[in-house]
Write a structure and sequence with these properties.
By secondary structure, the protein is mainly α. The protein has one domain. Helices cover 75% and strands 0% of the residues. Helix 1 packs antiparallel against helix 2. The radius of gyration is 14 Å and the shape is elongated. The termini are far apart.
């Protein structure tokens, strides 16, 4: 696989990783239950697309 064909994939992964980190920070700082549930739903939606480790750890 050549460099130019991997650029979109690398950009996609980097953007997704930044988005997940941002959502996790917002989840940790959220105090209202409605905010927490909305952010958890977004993380779950992102996690459905990615195989492997879950994005949200269940307690």
């Amino acid at each position: 696989m050549s460099g130019p064909s991997r650029r979109p994939e690398i950009r996609r992964r980097r953007t997704r990783k930044e988005k997940v980190l941002k959502l996790r920070k917002r989840l940790a700082a959220a105090t209202a239950e409605s905010d927490r549930s909305r952010i958890e739903q977004k993380l779950n939606r992102l996690g459905l697309v990615s195989p492997g480790t879950p994005l949200l750890k269940k307690a």
